[in-house]
Amino acid sequence: MERKQGHLPTQEIIASTSLLLQNPLVATKFFVPAASHTLIARPRLTALLDEGLEYSLTLVSAPAGSGKTTLLAAWGRSLPANNPLLAWVSLDEGDSNPRLFWTCLLSALNRLRPERFTPLLKYLQSSQDPSLKYVLRSLINLLAESQDRFLLILDDYHVIIEQEVHNTLLYLVEHIPLQLRMILATRANPPLPISALQARQRLLQVRTEQLRCTVEETRAFFRELLGIQLPDETIQQVTARTEGWMVGLQLLALSVPERVDPVTLLEEACGNQRYILDYLTEEVLRRQPQNVQMFLLSTCILEKLTASLCDAVMQQDSSQQMLEWLEQVNLFVVSLDSRRHWYRYHTLFAEALRYQLEQMHADLVPILHHHASLWYAQHGYTIEAILHACSAKEWQWAADLIERLPLTSISERKMSELREWLEQLPADIVCSRPRLCLACAQILWAVSSQTTLEAWFDAAETMLTTSLAMQTNQDVSHTVLTPKERQEQENLLGEVIAFRAILCSHQQDGQAALSLCQKALPLLSAKNFMARAQVSIAQLQACYVSSANDAVVAVQSGLQAGSLAQAARQTTFAITVMGTTAMYMIGTGRLHEAERLSQRAILLGTQPEELVLPEVGWPALFQAEILREWNQLDAALSRAEEAIKLCKQSNAIASLVFLLYGYVVLMRIFLSRRELDVACSALREVERIGASMNQPTSLHVRSLFSTIDQVRLWLACGELDRASRWAELLEVENWHSTPFAREREEVARARLFLAKHQPDLALERLELVLQRAMAGQRWGHVIEVRLLQALAYQMHEEETLALSFLSEAVCLAEPEGYICSFVDEGPPMAALLSRLREEQYKAMLTPYLDIVLSAFPRQSAIHEPQTKRVTEPTIAQMLQDPLSERECEVLRLLARGASNQEIAQELVIVVDTVKRHVSQILSKLAVKNRLQAVRQARALGLLGEASPHLTPRTRHPKGAQ
Question: With contact defined as beta carbons under 8 Å apart, do 898 and 909 qualify?
């Protein structure tokens, strides 16, 4: 039931102010950029924007430097006071997260009318998972009931890449009340139905052609702003050369000396636009006072400017006055807030300045970066501090910062920059700091090359082992460690070995990982819960995927790791470990236990008065997978989509694995829904993310998640050749993989052989796989293999064996409520299950089979989703030799109990023809008499009636409801 505005549940309101507004680096997002100089009048554009107030949405779309922000800011300030109320949001890359995006928008409105929007903003920031649909409907209701009119301007909307943001914004635009008007300023067209919105008169567009300065505006620009009267020919040439580009005009204007003919300047500046920009910017710099030049060059290394930061970089105390002066003379510095505390340079101007800095004062560059690093470190911006320290080549200082870096605070963009620097750390620095080696490996374990990771581990182990050995030998030439120092070194060595064991468990047979675990444990103190948890994780993975092949011990190790992580008070790590353990539980066939463990992990990350931790998305994905297996496909899809949103918010490097599995779960769900187009899209995301990982990590996660499912998808799409090429490549490529990975590949090959109608080859592959899965007590995989064996024997026309293997799979599957594992195998499995049900009917053992059979789609029950669905063939169509129309008529009369003579009279044919049709029907349905034929036809839904054999009983297996 939809909740009405003004009735938010008490538990969903948190008595706290927005964290968003407490950060001075972020609060500037809501200030309208201040105009620091006189602007030329552009009445044609202001009139166009005025007209836009009659539309739900105005789209201002043009390349960088076209004057979008300047135009909108000036126009917004010229509007009558509070009519409408102006809310401004300067978007950045982080705002692509849907929840943060709507937090920003509500915060902007909340600054204008806090008494109205605060409850909704608090709900969005609550610890419970907020419903964006509810937020949007509540916002629309709030606006519709308001006496105020609002204008919301979203600047730099091109940084938004999350489709859900576009979808939710479109929902608002399509239901927007008269009290709100919106403007998007963007460099690229957003993925909105622009033509449709325009056709319905909901959208007004302001494009590049309209933003370009006309000849008249170029003339006014030089005359009114610079006091320069240029000939008409020159004005036309300037307009043509700059294409009316506002920033180009400004750069050109600043480079025009008082006594130099600008026409001569343009003739001398040849080449592409960037060459002109660089040349003119140099001319601007050369004509500034020396102190201004030095300030510009010294501070251009900073993304954002504030007085204290600039003072620290330049070792002076007058930066505030300089920043204000630069703004007044329009030297491409933009004030980010009305208090003139934060500024930035125009992006192109900053690039040109940095180029000039390298050319003119290369020796000054590292000094400036070092000063910036110190300021950022002092103010808690560790990532920025590290990046500037690396740019300064201050490696020891950078190492200090890396060693204490909080690993949960690294954005994807910063991670990319950081990786480049960490892999360039000088060998002498790395080899002298074991904790630095460990920190680098922990940050980049999934993306750095195996060679780099091994070098870090080797260096750390060598340093620590050598140091401890010297103490044992009582070498007087070296410093003697205190007992505390020795314990710290042993602990650190244990941590290095423990983390190395985790990565080693992804490779080969895992025995080396187990040996490392045994080596690490004696070195770790009893209270080093975090490192001991990592040892347990390595044991979990090694026991499951290696030749140890013991899923029970593996899961026990995972549960122990979760307890240790909680004892260490590392909540996010504990959630990750519990989710991972749930994943392996699913492989053992313990679906209900895995679901309960996932739920405990989720609750751990949603404590009262806390925001939901992004890592909660990881265990939520396993809940989605279990829901899929229980055939609750809509609930599974919803859960998976919510989980992926959370995973995208995670800044940990493990989020790559989270996201990859998230798209695997989506692919499986769409496969079960028979929505192959979107399943293929999900697979492409899986491949994209996997390509960003190093090879050992990529091979490991593929074996756990996607090896079999990609082959299933290819076969479902009819891409048999593609699946065959994949199998051929496996035969020639010497990939480093675990026994478990090779097992998954064998199952995928078996599916390929079945698709090629080669059951003997499939059975040959499956036998060894089955033995290993049973030995490891991985009953979820045993179910899968037994089902494939049953299908192979069915194809081999050995029904007794097929039903025997199917019966074993049913016995294993029933307690945990497996459904989709059967249904996904399609009509051949439905036929086998129907035969099994016939055999078990007299013993009254069929309620579970009834439920599974009822889950198989029938033509009348298929509903087309919005996404393209592949047409589902009927079971009759999937028979190796489908029944003809006449045979179907004969079959229906047989079901009524009609004799051959009665059928001949009904169909006006001779009795011999009836006998021939009956013989064909018995052959095609693989039965021996009429009674069996009717039973089989009813079970398969060939008679167009609801068979009692397919009607679900009231009792459901636990978890299947």
Answer: no
